[in-house]
Write a structure and sequence with these properties.
two-stranded antiparallel sheet; alpha/beta; single chain; 5-stranded parallel beta sheet; globular; Rossmann fold
């Protein structure tokens, strides 16, 4: 059963009105490699057919002090994302501009740019409720922790200090997310997972064979 989040019937209908757009959610816990897989899939399918939307930029901003906010699961502004996905193919838009240090939305636009294509790939811990397919990327906890530490070193961040908060978000997502259509092992080679996912999509969605 899909999450009980009403993104609006009109918006949802316009999103798929042509019957040719496919919205794919790659979900899983923090450090699973969701963004890497999304980028690899888009590179494999080509930028004229496929676009990645870095979905964490659509997170709902903090409305409470950090010590309270970071004890609760992250939530996403699905209605806002739906409006972006409903734009005509070829439209250039962007994510909100978001300050992840303070967890505040700076502006509704001006974040990461992306172009609306036939295949839209979303990557977040929680799957987009109106996705056409949901892909689960599974990775053992110790591997995820090591990846986050390594990423912190590169990005000069301290995400590892919020590991419990991120895992709480994933735990909450699992309570209401739909069954996944495909599960991939996030410790497998990235290129192999991207190729397997691309082949699965072509089999699942005949419109992509054109």
């Amino acid at each position: 059963m899909r999450a009980v989040i009403d993104v609006g019937a009109t918006e949802r209908d316009s999103l798929h009105q042509s019957g040719s757009r496919v919205v794919l959610s790659i979900c899983g816990p923090a450090g699973a490699g969701k963004s890497h897989l999304a980028k690899a899939l888009c590179a494999l399918l080509g930028p004229e057919r496929c676009t990645r939307v870095p979905t964490d930029y659509f997170a709902l901003p903090a409305t409470e002090p950090p010590e309270t906010f970071f004890t609760k699961p992250l939530r996403y502004d699905w209605s806002f994302l739906t409006r972006a996905l409903a734009l005509p193919e070829g439209s250039v838009t962007s994510t909100p501009d978001f300050d992840f240090g303070r967890f505040q939305r700076i502006a509704d636009t001006g974040g990461r740019p992306f172009t609306i294509r036939r295949i839209m790939v979303l990557d977040a811990m929680e799957p987009y409720p109106s996705s056409d397919a949901t892909i689960l990327l599974s990775v053992p906890e110790h591997v995820r922790r090591d990846r986050i530490v390594a990423r912190d070193e590169v990005w000069k961040t301290r995400v590892r200090d919020r590991f419990h908060h991120l895992d709480a978000t994933w735990a909450h997502a699992q309570t209401h997310m739909p069954p996944c259509d495909l599960e991939l092992d996030g410790t497998e080679p990235l290129d192999a997972n991207a190729e397997r996912l691309a082949n699965w999509m072509v089999d699942r969605f005949p419109v992509l064979r054109a």
